[in-house]
Amino acid sequence: MSKTKKSISLFFGAGAGAEISYGMPSGGEFALNIFRQDQRTSKELFRNEIAKVNVSSFQAREWLPENYADKQVSSFSKTQHETLLKSSLEYKRA
Length: 94
Known about the structure:
Layout lengths: L26 H10 L3 H12 L6 H6 L14 H16 L1
Helix pairs in contact: 1-4
């Protein structure tokens, strides 16, 4: 039995809205949909993955920030939300 590797492609228009012609949401709509999702489950999954990191590995020592396991897991700030909403509204108005 052959195993096939699945691929995912994301289209983001560079101002021209190329993704819309494929029946996909615009970049702004896509981002708004992500912001509307409940992030608690994703944060918990992320915390579980952090707990599995081998703290003595090269990657943990060289790439991760100090005390990474104790840091707060955050997503988007209020300013990032406001900026996205403002730019989306300006785009819709135009």
